[in-house]
Amino acid sequence: MAGVLFNFNTWEFTKGVFEVAFLFIKIFFLPLWWLWLSLFSVLVLIILIERWLYKRRQIQNRALRQKGNLGDLERLANLRDRGVITEEEFKRKKKEILG
Questions:
Q1: SS3 letters for the chain?
Q2: Residue 60 domain-assigned (yes or no)
């Protein structure tokens, strides 16, 4: 192939590209592999902790809402038993609380 400066269809060109890429990786990334790995590990750890905290907050909020509803129903039942509110008022408020 006389007169062709670069022949991109040859194995030699492809092999040369890979050699340059591996040389680049060897020079710049391999000496710092432990740094890249540790940064990635820390990032994964942070994501896992955030997910765990988010789920924990959801469970706590759900528990507080249920506890609040239970407390409201207990107070209403107490008021109904003491005769402060009527049975119809109790049923209406119970329906509001339970949705």
A1: CCCCCCCCCCHHHHHHHHHHHHHHHHHHCHHHHHHHHHHHHHHHHHHHHHHHHHHHHHHHHHHHHHHHHHHHHHHHHHHHHHCCCCHHHHHHHHHHHHC
A2: yes
